[in-house]
Design a protein that fits this description.
The chain is mostly helical. Helix content is 71%, strand content 0%. It has one domain. The chain is globular, with a radius of gyration of 19 Å.
C-alpha cells in the first residue's frame, strides 16, 4: 500500500484553506489599488457560489492531494514543488485566451503583468505547499492527541498539556 498524505479527514482542511486564500488574495488586490469591480459576479452571487467553492476545492484536491503527493514521493519536497510550479503555471495558460477573466486581462495589460504571473507561481506554490503540509501535520497531531486522550493515553503524544 502506498504511503499517502491525503485521507478523508483532511478534506475539511482543504475546504477551509482555499476560501481563506481566496479572501486574502482579494483583500490584497483591493489594498494595492485594484478596484473591487474585478470581483463582480456575472449572473449574481447565488449562481456563482457553487463555482467559487467547488472549482478551487476540486482543483486543490487534485493538485495538492494527489498531484503534489505523487511528485513529492518521487522527487522530494523542493524539487516536486518547483516541478509543480511549472505544471501549475501551464495549467492556467489556456485562461489567457478566454475573454473576461483575470489571466486574459493580464495578457492584454502589459508584458510585466504577464511575466509576474508566471514568476509569482513559484513562491505561491512554495507557500501553499508549505501551508498545506503544515496544516495537515497539525490536524494529524491534533486528531492523534484527541484519540489518545479518549483512550486514556494522552501522555503518549506531544500535545499532553491541559487540553
Amino acid at each position: 500500500m502506498r504511503n499517502t498524505i491525503l485521507s478523508l479527514g483532511y478534506i475539511p482542511v482543504i475546504l477551509i484553506l482555499m476560501p481563506v486564500a481566496l479572501f486574502l488574495s482579494t483583500w490584497l488586490s483591493v489594498e494595492v489599488g485594484r478596484t473591487a469591480d474585478q470581483f463582480r459576479l456575472s449572473g449574481g452571487f447565488a449562481t456563482m457560489l457553487p463555482i467559487i467553492v467547488l472549482a478551487p476545492t476540486f482543483e486543490e484536491l487534485g493538485w495538492r492531494g494527489y498531484g503534489m503527493d505523487s511528485l513529492r514521493a518521487k522527487f522530494g519536497m523542493m524539487k516536486a514543488t518547483l516541478l509543480f510550479s511549472v505544471l501549475w503555471a501551464m495549467w492556467h495558460v489556456p485562461l489567457f485566451f478566454i475573454d473576461h477573466n483575470y489571466q486574459h486581462g493580464l495578457w492584454n495589460s502589459s508584458p510585466i503583468y504577464l511575466a509576474n504571473f508566471f514568476v509569482s507561481v513559484i513562491p505561491a506554490a512554495i507557500l501553499m505547499n508549505w501551508l498545506f503540509i503544515s496544516i495537515l501535520v497539525i490536524a494529524g497531531n491534533r486528531a492523534f492527541f484527541f484519540e489518545e486522550k479518549k483512550r486514556g493515553r494522552a501522555s503518549a503524544c506531544a500535545f499532553s498539556g491541559n487540553e
